[in-house]
C-alpha cells in the first residue's frame, strides 16, 4: 500500500478510465504478446517430450538421415520390443512395489507421529518436533555411505526393503511438517465433544481425526509416491541385481547398454515416462497443492 | 525416546498446568502414565526409523570422516581432520564445489526472470490457463534420469538441439566463426552450461507453479485499487504484486539452492562427471570416491562438507529471510 502512495503520478492523463476499462477488454497487442510468450515457454518445455515419443516410432535409419522429421512410415517395432520385454514389466512392478511401500510407510508412521505432536500437551513436544524438522537438513546423499554399510549389516542390500525403509525415514520430516499444522487445525470442540461421549484419545484418532486428515494424507502420499518413482541414488546403490531394478535404473542401464540403438532408447524412455505422466495428470491438483503447501508450511 | 522411557518422572511435570483441580493422585498418575504410553506408541515407529536410518548414519558419516578407511577393514587408522584438509586442497573436489556454486547461481539467474515473467503473464485473464499450467509442469514430474537420457540423445551431434539451432550456426558461420557447433556434452568449456540449461528445463515448471500459487494468494483488491488509480499493468506488477510475492520467491530460491548443492542424478546420467572430471558435483564426486575407489573415510568427509554448506545456506535463510517473512506465523512458536 505504501508503494502505491510513493508511486509517481501517471504519466499520461487519460489513463484512469482507459486502465479501468482495459480490465474488461484487454488491449489486443498486449494480449497477443502474453499468449506468444507463454506458448513459447510451453513449446520449449513440451517439444522435447513430444520429440522423444514420436521418434520412438522411427527407425535408426530415419533418425540418422533426418533427426527431426516425423516418422515416415510409422514403425511400431521399437515400442513393441519394449512392451513385450520382461525386463520392462519387471521394472514397472519393482518401481510400483517400492513406491507403494514407501508411500504407505510414510503415511502410517508420519500420521501417527504427527498426532501427539499436534494434539497432546507434553513436556518436550517442541523439542521432539524440532528433531524431525532438523531432519530436513539431511538429504539422503549426506548419509548415503554409512547408510549403505548399515543396510549391508542388516542384510537389506539388494532387497526392496533396503530402498523402502530409508526412503520412509528420510521422508518423515517433510511429512510431519505438512501434517502437524493440518491436524492442529481440526477444531478443539470436536475433540471435547468426543471426550464427553466417552471416546478416548486413541479412539478420537482412529474414528474422527483419521477420516478428517485424509486430504492431507493424500497430498503427502502423492508427493512421496512421485519422489520414490523418480528416485535414482538409493536404488542405484542398494539394488544390485537387474531383476530388482526400478524404472530409472532400467532406463539408465538400457541407454548405456544399447547406446547405438537410438530408436530403442527413445521408445524405452517414452514408455518409462508414461506412468509418471498418467499419474500426474490424475493427481495434478494434489501434487501442485502439496508442493506449494509444503514449501509454504 | 528418553521421554517415553521415564513416564513416571516426566509425568510429575506435565498436567499441572491445565488441570489445577486436586483429584485423587493415583488416578491422575495412571492417567498421565497412559498418556505417555499413547505418545510413545504413536511416535515410536517414526522416531525409531528416523534415528536408525537418518540420525545414526549421519553421525557415522561424521565419525568415519576422521579415519582412513576402505569400508571393510577395522576402523583403526585415525587421521584426525586429514580427510578434510585433503578435500579442501584437492583440485578435483574444489572444482566440484565450484561447479555446485555455478549451478546455485546459474539456476536462479536463468529460472527466476523467466518463471516470474511467465507466472505474471499467466496470472492475467487467459484462455486455456489450466491446460498451460499442466503442460508447463510436465518436465518436473519426469525423473532426472529420464530427462537426462532424453537430452543426452537430443544433444548428440546433429540431434534435435543442433537442428533447432542450425539458423544460429549458419549466422555465426557467415560472421566468420570457424566451427560454431558446440560439443554440448564433450567440451569441458560447454558442459556446465549444457547441464545448467537441462536442469532449468526440468525445474522451471516448479518455479512457475509455485509463483502462480503465490499470486493467487494476493488480494486482487490491491491491484484493482491501483488500476483505478491509473497504474499501468507493469507498474502494478513491479510495485505491488512482485513485492507481495517476495516470500514465495525467497522460499523457492532456498529450495533451488539446496537442490543445486545436492545435484546428483542428472550429472551422473548425462556426463558421469566428465569429460575429464570437469562436470563433477560434490555428490557425484563423493559417490565416486566412496564407492568406486572404496575411500569411505574420505567420501564421508566430502559428505560432511556438503552437509555443512547446505546447513549454512539453511541458517542464512532462517536468520535473514524467514524471520522477516513469518513474523505472524504462530505454527512455529506454539
Please tell me about this protein's structure.
The complex is a heterodimer of chains A (297) and B (334). With 297 residues, chain A is mainly α. Chain A folds into two domains: 71 residues, no CATH class; 212 residues, MetI-like (MetI-like fold, Orthogonal Bundle), CATH 1.10.3720. In chain A, helix 6 runs parallel beside helix 9 and helix 11 packs antiparallel against helix 14. Chain A is globular and about 75 Å long. Chain B is mainly α and 334 residues long. Chain B has one domain: MetI-like (MetI-like fold). Helices cover 72% and strands 0% of the residues of chain B. Chain B has 16 helices and no strands. In chain B, helix 2 crosses helix 3 and helix 13 runs antiparallel to helix 16. The longest helix of chain B has 40 residues. Chain B starts with a helix and ends in a 9-residue tail after the last helix. The chains are: A mainly alpha (297), B mainly alpha (334). Chains A and B meet through helix 1, helix 2, helix 3, helix 6 and helix 7 of A and helix 2, helix 3, helix 5, helix 6 and helix 7 of B.
Amino acid at each position: 500500500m505504501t508503494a502505491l502512495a510513493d508511486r509517481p503520478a501517471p504519466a499520461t492523463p487519460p489513463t484512469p478510465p482507459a486502465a479501468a476499462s482495459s480490465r474488461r477488454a484487454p488491449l489486443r497487442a498486449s494480449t497477443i504478446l502474453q499468449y506468444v510468450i507463454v506458448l513459447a515457454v510451453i513449446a520449449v518445455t513440451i517439444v522435447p517430450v513430444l520429440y522423444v515419443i514420436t521418434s520412438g516410432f522411427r527407425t535408426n535409419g530415419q533418425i540418422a538421415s533426418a533427426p527431426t522429421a516425423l516418422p515416415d512410415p510409422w514403425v511400431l517395432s521399437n515400442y513393441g520390443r519394449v512392451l513385450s520385454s520382461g525386463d520392462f514389466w519387471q521394472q514397472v512392478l519393482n518401481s510400483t512395489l517400492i513406491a507403494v511401500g514407501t508411500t504407505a510407510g510414510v503415511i502410517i508412521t508420519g500420521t501417527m507421529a504427527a498426532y501427539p505432536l499436534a494434539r497432546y500437551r507434553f513436556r518436550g513436544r517442541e523439542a521432539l518436533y524440532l528433531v524431525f524438522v532438523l531432519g530436513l537438513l539431511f538429504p539422503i546423499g549426506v548419509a548415503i555411505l554409512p547408510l549403505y554399510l548399515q543396510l549391508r549389516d542388516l542384510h537389506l542390500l539388494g532387497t526392496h526393503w533396503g530402498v523402502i525403509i530409508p526412503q520412509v525415514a528420510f521422508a518423515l520430516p517433510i511429512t510431519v511438517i505438512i501434517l502437524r499444522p493440518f491436524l492442529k487445525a481440526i477444531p478443539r470442540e470436536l475433540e471435547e465433544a468426543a471426550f464427553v461421549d466417552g471416546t478416548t484419545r486413541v479412539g478420537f484418532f482412529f474414528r474422527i481425526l483419521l477420516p478428517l486428515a485424509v486430504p492431507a494424507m493424500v497430498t503427502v502420499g502423492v508427493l512421496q509416491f512421485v519422489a520414490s518413482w523418480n528416485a535414482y541414488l538409493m536404488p542405484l546403490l542398494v539394488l544390485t541385481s537387474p531383476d530388482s531394478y526400478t524404472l530409472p535404473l532400467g532406463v539408465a542401464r538400457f541407454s548405456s547398454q544399447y547406446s547405438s540403438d537410438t530408436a530403442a532408447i527413445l521408445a524405452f524412455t517414452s514408455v518409462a515416462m508414461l506412468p509418471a505422466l498418467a499419474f500426474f495428470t490424475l493427481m495434478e491438483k494434489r501434487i501442485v497443492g502439496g508442493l506449494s503447501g509444503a514449501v509454504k508450511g | 525416546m528418553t521421554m517415553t522411557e521415564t513416564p513416571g518422572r516426566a509425568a510429575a511435570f506435565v498436567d499441572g498446568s491445565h488441570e489445577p483441580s486436586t483429584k485423587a493422585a493415583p488416578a491422575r498418575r495412571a492417567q498421565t502414565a497412559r498418556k505417555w504410553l499413547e505418545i510413545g506408541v504413536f511416535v515410536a515407529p517414526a522416531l525409531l526409523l528416523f534415528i536408525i536410518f537418518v540420525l545414526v548414519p549421519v553421525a557415522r558419516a561424521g565419525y568415519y570422516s576422521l579415519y582412513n578407511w576402505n569400508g571393510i577393514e577395522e576402523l583403526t587408522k585415525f587421521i584426525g581432520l586429514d580427510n578434510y584438509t585433503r578435500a579442501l586442497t584437492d583440485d578435483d573436489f574444489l572444482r566440484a564445489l565450484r561447479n555446485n556454486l555455478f549451478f546455485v547461481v546459474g539456476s536462479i539467474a536463468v529460472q527466476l526472470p523467466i518463471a516470474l515473467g511467465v507466472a505474471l503473464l499467466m496470472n492475467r485473464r487467459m484462455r486455456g490457463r489450466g491446460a498451460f499450467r499442466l503442460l508447463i509442469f510436465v518436465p518436473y514430474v519426469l525423473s532426472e534420469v529420464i530427462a537426462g537420457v532424453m537430452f543426452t540423445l537430443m544433444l548428440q551431434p546433429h540431434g534435435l538441439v543442433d537442428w533447432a539451432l542450425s539458423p544460429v550456426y549458419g549466422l555465426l558461420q557467415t560472421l566468420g566463426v570457424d566451427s560454431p557447433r558446440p560439443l554440448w556434452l564433450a567440451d569441458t568449456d560447454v558442459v556446465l552450461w549444457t547441464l545448467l540449461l537441462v536442469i532449468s528445463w526440468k525445474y522451471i515448471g516448479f518455479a512457475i507453479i509455485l509463483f502462480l500459487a503465490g499470486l493467487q494468494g494476493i488480494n486482487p483488491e490491491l491491484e484493482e485499487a491501483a488500476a483505478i488509480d491509473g497504474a499501468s499493468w507493469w507498474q502494478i506488477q513491479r510495485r505491488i504484486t512482485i513485492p507481495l510475492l517476495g516470500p514465495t520467491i525467497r522460499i523457492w530460491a532456498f529450495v533451488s539452492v539446496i537442490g543445486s548443492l545436492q545435484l546428483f542424478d542428472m550429472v551422473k546420467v548425462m556426463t558421469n562427471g566428465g569429460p575429464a572430471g570437469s562436470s563433477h558435483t560434490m555428490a557425484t564426486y563423493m559417490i565416486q570416491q566412496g564407492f568406486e575407489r572404496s575411500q569411505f573415510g574420505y567420501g564421508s568427509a566430502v559428505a560432511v562438507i556438503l552437509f555443512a554448506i547446505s546447513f549454512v545456506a539453511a541458517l542464512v535463510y532462517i536468520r535473514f529471510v524467514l524471520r522477516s517473512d513469518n513474523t505472524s506465523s504462530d505454527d512455529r512458536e506454539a
